[in-house]
Design a protein that fits this description.
Shape: globular
Number of strands: 3
Radius of gyration: 15 Å
Oligomer: single chain
Number of domains: 1
Strand content: 15-25%
Number of helices: 5
Largest sheet: 3 strands, antiparallel
Length: 116
């Protein structure tokens, strides 16, 4: 089974696993129930600081494509907030390239001349 097909199976079984798998290496992921309607609040934090917060509706959570777009949107927002080029990130998203997460706070960045 390829990595892509494994990801599709995981999304069908547990759509929130993509969120957890994507952001756990760099952020603390907290999902909390917000009401009886099935809405969840996603909070990403790092070093005691909230980095991103998003409400996830039941409809959004149950649609694998919407979950993927949510993950991309959050990563895009974090990258912009940290000063990365919006144009470069949008090009990567448009080309279907995986959107790399920005480096953790305090991490050494590559010199600008060598970055794409």
């Amino acid at each position: 089974m390829t990595a892509r097909s494994q990801q599709a199976v995981t999304l069908m079984d547990n759509p929130l696993q993509l969120i957890t798998d994507t952001f756990t290496p760099q952020y603390q992921v907290n999902l909390s129930i917000q009401g009886l309607d099935g809405n969840l609040m996603l909070t990403l934090s790092q070093a005691g600081r909230v980095v991103a917060k998003r409400m996830i509706s039941a409809a959004q959570r149950n649609d694998p494509r919407r979950v993927e777009r949510l993950v991309q949107s959050i990563a895009f927002g974090i990258a912009i907030e940290q000063g990365h080029s919006a144009v470069a990130i949008l090009e990567a998203m448009t080309n279907g390239d995986p959107l790399p997460l920005p480096p953790a706070a305090g991490a050494q960045e590559a010199p600008r001349a060598s970055r794409l």
